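User: Here's a chain of 430 residues. Predict its fold as C-alpha cells.
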Amino acid sequence: MKLFIKYRNLILLFSVLCCGFVFISCDQKEQNTKETSAEPTQEVSQEITAVPDDGKEKEEDNVASTTEDNAYYENYTKTGVLASIKDVYKDKFHIGVALAKHDIENKIKANFVASQFSSITCENEMKADFTLDHAATLKKGDEEFPVVNMKNAVVALNFAKENDIKMRAHTLVWHSQTPRWLFTEGFDKSEDAPFVTREVMLARMENYIKQEMEYVNTNYEGVVYAWDVVNEAIEIGDGHKDGIRIKNNYWYEIIGDDYIEQAFTFARKYADKNQKLFYNDYGTYEKSKLFAICELVNKLKEKGIIDGVGLQDHIQIDYPTTLDYQYAINKYSELGLEIQITELDIACPEDTEEAQEKLATRYRTIFSILLNCLNKGNANITSVTVWGLSDDRSWINKPDQPSYPLLFDKNLKPKRAFFGALLDPSVKKY
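Assistant: Prediction complete.
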C-alpha cells in the first residue's frame, strides 16, 4: 500500500508538470498567432518629428497606418478596377495634377484626369508670358496698363468648370517667364530699352493682377480656389539680408524690397473672398531658405494679406532626408497658415522594377508624413498636386537624361508609386 501511494504521488506530480508545459506552449503559440495576423491589417510606421532646439533627433510612432481596407493594389490586380486617389483623400485634402492645354484636349487624358483628380494647375498657360498681350497693350496706348488676354487658359478653365474640378492659379508675380517689355518704357521689346519708374511699375502690377483675377472670377466663379501670388522670390545666394532674390529679377530691380508685399496687397484687393493667396517656392526644406521664407510669410501674415505657403517639392529618392522633410512641414505648420504641396515629383532616373519600388516607398513616405501631421492637427494641409500626369510628360524627363518620377506611365497605367501614394500595404515602408 505504501508503495502504491508513493508511485501515485509521482504520477500526479508528473501530470501537473505536463499540463503546465502544454499551457505555456499553447499560450505562447496564441500570442505568436495574434502578432502574425496583425501585420496585414495594421502596419505601424514612424513619424519623424521636428529636430528640437538642442539639435537631437527624435522619433515617435505615427498614426498613419494601413489596413486591409486600403489594399488597392491587390484589388487592382484581381479585378482591374483602379481606385480613385481623389476619392481616397476626399476627406483630407485636394489631390491635384499639373496639365498643359494639349493634355486636356486629349479626350482619353481628360476623362482620366476627371476620374482621378479634384484639382488642376496649368503648367504654363496662366503665367505672365502666356497671359500678357503685347500687341493689344501697344494698341491701348496706356503706359500704366499692360493688357491681359486669358485665351490660353480658357481650355483648362472650361474643363475645370464642366467637371466640377477646382483650380490652382499659377502664377502671378515671378521673375521667370515674365517678358521684359512689361517693365520697359513704352513696353519696348528692345534689349536695351530703359525701365519705367517704381510708380509706373506699381500701377502696371496692379492692373495686371486686377485683370487676371477679375476675368477668372467673373467668368469662372468658384473655380479657382488658390492663387500663387508670388513665386520663387527667395534666393539665399543672391546676398540680400532677407534672402530676397535680387539677380535677374526686374520686379525687385524696379519696385524694391516691398514688391512682394505690394503684389499680395493687390491680390487681396481683387481676389474673391473664398480664394486663398499663397507664396510658392522650391527647396523649401533647405534650412536657410526655410527660415527666410518663414520670416517673409510672417510679415505678410501680420498684414493679413496671405493665406498659405506652397511647397513645390521637386525632390529626389534620398533627398531631402525624411527628418529634414518632416522638420520643414513642422516649421511651416507653426505659421498657422494653410500648407499646399504644389508641384510634387520625385526624380527617378531608372525604370527598373527595383528603382520604381524605391520610388513607391518614397511616395508612401511623403504622403504618410503629410497625413500624420494633418491627422494629429499639427498642420492644415489642404492640397497635394503632382507636377505632371505621366512620366513622358514630366518636365524632368529629357531625351538625354530620362526620369520616371510620377504616378502613371506613358500609357496612363498606374505605377507602384501610385499605390505608394495611397499607403498601400504592398508597398514597403520607409
